[in-house]
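User: Quick sanity check before I run a bigger batch. Here is a single chain. Can you write out its predicted 3D structure?
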Amino acid sequence: MDIQFVGLPSDKVAQVRATGRDDYGLAVEVDTSNGDAWPCRHCLGETPHGEAYLTLAWKPFQGTNAYTETGPLFLCASGCEAAKPSSAVPAILRSDQYLVRGYTGDERILYGTGRVVATAGIADYAKSLLENPEIAFVDIRSAANNCYQCRVVRA
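Assistant: Done. Predicted structure follows.
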């Protein structure tokens, strides 16, 4: 089975940029990159030094239920290009480990799937989760701060 890492949907990102509001309706924070890590979850690249980035709350789900977590993330403030779906682990995933968890089609955590995984093992673990027909997608979050990173789907 082939898998793809995907960034945030362009239509929802454009809405955040246009309205300046996050998933709680709060004003997004705007700052300027100093060259440190400000990874954009849309282009799956770093916000370039000297460029503006947004900090906001993001709910990566269509519906709302007890499992629809919201987490902080960064976006390039300008209209960056969406990341092309890829089987390669995105370069922005450079911490030692991440929380990787499978979700069902009704956007609920499939218990027993959540695991802190070494970055080098993320693709293999996500692929093994997606071999289970109950799992619709896999989300990757920071193991330390619960920030949403990206989603993994079947190719």
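The chain has a mean pLDDT of 95.

User: Great, the batch can go ahead then.
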